[in-house]
């Protein structure tokens, strides 16, 4: 009986111990779950709008990277009290659509910040709404220099300004010595914004912009062809292309169709197009073989490799239609923009998040009903002061826009772009970024890797050609009898071919050859049908004034009445009477003047007789005269001394003892 009682008591104690042990195990879990629930209940929602084009490639890229950025950020910062809540809107590729979406977010959702819109034209409208509501507008794809935080204080460009690349483009042009370049750009805010900066950069290196080709985004194929045929008639063969991806996909196939992708042409695409090369159709890439481009340099990192792998995996799971495109800089900028906003939101998380709505009367427009964010100024300053290392590199905002100064130079070959070098503001064109000993700016082509130019040429194009339909300059030359060293016109009677020669012609030909571009011209003699002169020099000058000639070359004297009709070059020879006289040197200053009385042959003959005389004396005297005996050097010295001393004094008779 006792054993049964003890067994029952032992079983109860065992169950109690197990229950107590289980309670200890569950206690941390209960505390953790309870803490998490409390944390979720204490987090502050921070509404952020996203305005992008859902059907464009950049819009899809942003929509795929922004949620991943939000998930990654709060996985790494789970203890943060604020949580960004995204509200996406489709701008439908339209300026009005973007403004309408932003207005809806500001009025009905009361977002504290807006990521987007996508294009510079859309951003131009939305920025005014942001200023009115004091809500930061953070765009990672509106790169036009026409947008500035100086004009719109609540605009934050989480991307590079297009004007930052013009120095790199001018460095390429300077490296190859091209003296003319034609920009080809679309007629939008994005296309027009960079052209003044590009023109100024070319002016600094003495490169002319003879023409600007503007193409509308809605241009038909026939209009694009008409513009290309116009460019073909010019002598310039260096073209800078700055346009959107959609227009580029129609433009370059037409370039190849008309034969402007042959040898001798130079095509340089800007950063926006180069970053989108991996998203273009293979047929478009095939029409761009040999094109040069520059794109933003993205430093490699483990975080970037990890994100790229996860991004590709997500696309494969979702079966998206731009899986093959690959991740580019716009997706990285979108990712970093979310991190910057999340960090800034946490800094001001303790502030009351609210909108101050204005008092409006009936029949008030939606614009008048927009409230003002109470934390907008603080949020703006917090974003501008945010510094961190993102996927695209260092996130550092200066004057409201991202700062990144290194560009990668590429050459379109095969199915993609091959790196040929880099450009930095400090060192210029370099082959490697970490090259030692680089302490000065250089634009040497030796720092670039081998380039395959259009037409599969390995020789750098000279940048210009003589156009087949170009107009030749008509250069008038005088016809005269007599002095013909300056200008001489001769006609072959058998072939009737006129030849113009002379000093003035040589000077003019040399000047035209020294020009950095081709100028076709021909000499037209100022003569009648019989070959005789058609008039005086005054008549020739007046024909230039009448535009029968484009210029005149010859020994034309610059006088006052002729200067009233034409402009003269600076004179390269003096006019008037001249005299040619021989120049005689003053020989009295010559140290060898004493040699002048005798000729060279006479001096040589005299010297030979002196030596002969000394030899004869030696033959006669050395047997009996001790002065002519001794070592060989002494005897030779005596011979020459005796011969040359006779010039100044007479010697006494030599005698010997009997």
From TrEMBL:
Q: How is this protein annotated for GO cellular component?
A: membrane
The protein, known as = Ionotropic glutamate receptor C-terminal domain-containing protein
Where located?
Membrane
- Occurrences of domain Ionotropic glutamate receptor C-terminal (ranges): 472-656
Which source organism?
Tetracentron sinense
Provide the assembly information.
May form heteromers.
Q: List the Pfam families hit by this protein, alphabetically.
A: ANF_receptor, Lig_chan, Lig_chan-Glu_bd
Question: What molecular function does GO assign, one term?
Answer: ligand-gated monoatomic ion channel activity
């Amino acid at each position: 009986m006792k054993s049964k009682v003890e067994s029952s008591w032992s079983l109860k104690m065992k169950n109690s111990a197990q229950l107590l042990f289980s309670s200890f195990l569950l206690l941390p879990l209960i505390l953790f779950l309870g803490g998490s629930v409390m944390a979720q209940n204490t987090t502050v929602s921070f509404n952020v709008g996203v305005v992008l084009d859902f059907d464009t490639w950049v819009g899809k890229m942003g929509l795929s990277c922004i949620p991943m950025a939000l998930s990654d950020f709060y996985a790494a910062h789970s203890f943060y009290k604020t949580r960004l809540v995204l509200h996406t809107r489709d701008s439908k590729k339209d300026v009005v659509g973007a403004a309408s979406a932003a207005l809806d977010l500001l009025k009905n959702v009361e977002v504290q910040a807006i990521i987007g819109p996508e294009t510079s034209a859309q951003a131009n409208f939305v920025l005014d709404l942001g200023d009115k509501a004091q809500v930061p507008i953070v765009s990672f794809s509106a790169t036009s220099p026409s947008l500035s935080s100086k004009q719109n204080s609540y605009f934050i460009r989480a991307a590079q300004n297009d004007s930052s690349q013009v120095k790199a483009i001018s460095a390429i042009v300077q490296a190859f010595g091209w003296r003319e370049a034609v920009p080809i750009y679309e007629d939008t805010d994005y296309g027009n914004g960079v052209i003044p900066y590009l023109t100024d950069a070319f002016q600094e290196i003495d490169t002319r912009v003879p023409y600007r080709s503007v193409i509308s985004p809605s241009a038909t194929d026939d209009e694009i062809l008409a513009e290309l045929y116009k460019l073909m008639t010019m002598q310039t063969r260096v073209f800078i292309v700055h346009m959107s991806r959609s227009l580029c996909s129609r433009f370059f196939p037409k370039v190849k169709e008309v034969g402007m992708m042959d040898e001798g042409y130079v095509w340089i695409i800007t950063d926006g197009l180069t970053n989108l090369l991996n998203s273009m159709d293979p047929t478009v890439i095939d029409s761009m073989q040999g094109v040069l481009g520059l794109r933003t340099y993205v430093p490699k990192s483990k975080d970037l490799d990890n994100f790229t792998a996860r991004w590709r995996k997500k696309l494969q799971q979702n079966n998206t239609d731009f899986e093959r495109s690959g991740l580019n800089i716009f997706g990285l900028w979108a990712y970093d923009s979310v991190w910057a906003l999340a960090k800034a939101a946490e800094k001001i998380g303790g502030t009351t998040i609210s909108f101050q709505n204005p008092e409006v009367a009936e029949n008030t427009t939606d614009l008048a009903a927009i409230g003002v964010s109470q934390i907008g100024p603080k949020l703006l300053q917090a974003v501008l002061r945010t510094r961190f290392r993102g996927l695209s590199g260092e996130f550092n905002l200066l004057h409201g826009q991202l700062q990144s100064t290194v560009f990668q130079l590429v050459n379109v070959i095969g199915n993609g772009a091959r790196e040929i070098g880099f450009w930095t503001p400090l060192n210029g064109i370099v082959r490697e970024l970490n090259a030692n000993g680089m302490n000065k700016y250089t634009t040497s082509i030796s720092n670039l890797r081998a380039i395959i130019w259009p037409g599969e040429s390995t020789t750098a194009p000279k940048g210009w050609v003589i156009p087949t339909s170009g107009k030749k300059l008509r250069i008038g030359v005088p016809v005269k009898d007599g002095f013909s060293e300056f200008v001489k016109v001769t006609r072959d009677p058998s072939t009737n071919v006129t030849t113009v020669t002379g000093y003035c012609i040589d000077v003019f030909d040399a000047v035209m050859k020294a020009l950095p571009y081709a100028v076709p011209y021909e000499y037209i003699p100022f003569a009648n049908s019989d070959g005789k002169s058609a008039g005086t020099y005054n008549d020739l000058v007046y024909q230039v004034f009448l535009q029968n000639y484009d210029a005149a070359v010859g020994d034309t004297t610059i006088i006052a009445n002729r200067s009233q009709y034409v402009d003269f070059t600076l004179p390269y020879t003096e006019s008037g009477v001249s005299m040619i006289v021989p120049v005689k040197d003053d020989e009295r200053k010559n140290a060898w003047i004493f040699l002048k009385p005798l000729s060279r042959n006479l001096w040589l003959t005299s010297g030979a007789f002196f030596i002969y005389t000394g030899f004869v004396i030696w033959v006669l005297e050395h047997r009996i005269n001790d002065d002519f005996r001794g070592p060989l050097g002494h005897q030779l010295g005596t011979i020459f001394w005796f011969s040359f001393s006779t010039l100044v004094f007479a010697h006494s008779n030599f005698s010997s003892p009997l």
